[in-house]
């Protein structure tokens, strides 16, 4: 898959492998996003909620998946992008973002690729599922 014009149904985007989610990652993302929910940065708050430890903000995973897309195409080619959160991303997890072309279609006067996207962990847990529509021409 070298050119957008050479895409076919079933083609896969190059995966994006992220480093381990650390407490620093969560604190920096909280500051950047304004999401200071203590369940993501305070172990006591997480334990009071019945969890063993803090976990990543869902929007952090969505941002990683967006980075997968913008590492592949320029932002102006993204026509739509949506996600559904399916599981939490625990501390020290190593997310892997992937995407696959599910259809090539015409719409609004342009050729487009429809993609299925996901964020998964090394143990196979899928934490986020998404879809995107990308302009090819």
Automatic annotation (TrEMBL):
Domain of life: Bacteria
MaoC-like domain boundaries: 20-92
A matching Pfam family: MaoC_dehydratas
CDD domains: SAV4209_like
Family: Belongs to the enoyl-CoA hydratase/isomerase family.
Name used for this protein in its record: Acyl dehydratase
Gene source species: Actinomadura meyerae
Lineage: Bacteria, Bacillati, Actinomycetota, Actinomycetes, Streptosporangiales
